[in-house]
Amino acid sequence: xxxxxxxxxxxxxxxxxxxxxxxxxGSGSGGGGSGPVTITIWHNYxxxxxxxxxxxxxxxxxxxxxxxxxxxxxxxxxxxxxxxQSAAISKxxxxxxxxxxxxxxxxxxxxxTNLKTELPxxxxxxxxxxxxxxxxxxxxxxxxxxxxxxxxxxYIGFYNKADFAKAGVTSVPTDWSQLYAACxxxxxxxxxxxxxxxxxxxxxxxxxxxxxxxxxxxxxxxxSKWQGLYSGQIPWTSPTIKAQxxxxxxxxxxxxxxxxxxxxxxxxxxxESGKAAMMVDGTWDTQKFTNALGTKVAAFIPPFxxxxxxxxxxxxxxxxxxxxxxxxxxxxxxxLEFMTTPQAxxxxxxxxxxxxxxxxxxxNPVNQEMLNxxxxxxxxxxxxxxxxxxxxxxxxxxxxxPSVLNGSVSVQSALQSMQTTLNQLPANQRGNTFP
Length: 435
Description:
The chain is of the alpha/beta class. Helix content is 40%, strand content 13%.
């Protein structure tokens, strides 16, 4: 998933040592009683469209189930997983919680419930199989699954068509050279070509670099080889990766970006106002952009390659998981099953998101453009890179890569730090297959 990736290895070790059980301590009916029941959901969405969707799902579910109250709790994103882990040890946390997919799900599955034992197969079959697999053992949807996806997410580029027209940019750039050329025209016309900053996501003091890294690796390797980044078969210091990042740094050094890439906190506002012509973000902000810019905004594939990119990040980055200690598994399952229904899909779509449910659609035209990249342009679907790379490596990259773009840290130094982090992981976290 794309938000707030923070390591919590020490707490995880404590959790494993404590040995989470599958039942909660203390009194409780286990959800079998007929009286009113309250189930608590934790999330780390802040004020994003995801938070709106979750709140509206809870309201709709309560109308269908008047004896079940949904208590939706927004948690501090900066230590969200540490809180979940502590709650798992004491078994006094939420019943359901937002969980990122990919390696995050598998890392924390010791305190999650296998939903294949809780939900009917008909509910799971309603979910897009490409979405479900990323929360399943071995990334295989036929195995145990732990998360019901809230939505299909895209890491994607957004651009302002009016800015392009005023600057004389007649086509969307598809490779590095075309991007540099478009930047020159946009800058001459008075626009910031590409804006970076941490305003879109509270990721820390700098922008989150793994959106861009995903497309640089799409430009470097086919999806079939991405597992090599996990195993170490493809070292982070490889000439191919170094070349991609070297081209990336030119965006800043040639004035294609805002000068304050590591300190800017108003990148969303700068794009929404039309002062910046492009930014790389995700579907969680699509509705904000269409509300602000209307038909001026469109989606594009970040062209971080020497040849046109033929892939797109299309991935169910998060959803809800049932905690193994929950005292209300029956009611938990009812809510999770509700998330797979057509009614839920309409609620998710109304929040400006893309439902991950088979046979449903999106009404947001920019979201539809993203789907068309796959359905009409037949681009290869890639996962989010930060969900299939070890969390420690992601954290190291998040620390150094923004300064690489800024020019204050060398490409070689940052990549060597990432490789050192990978080399220090135990062998069972660097295997030739995903866990």
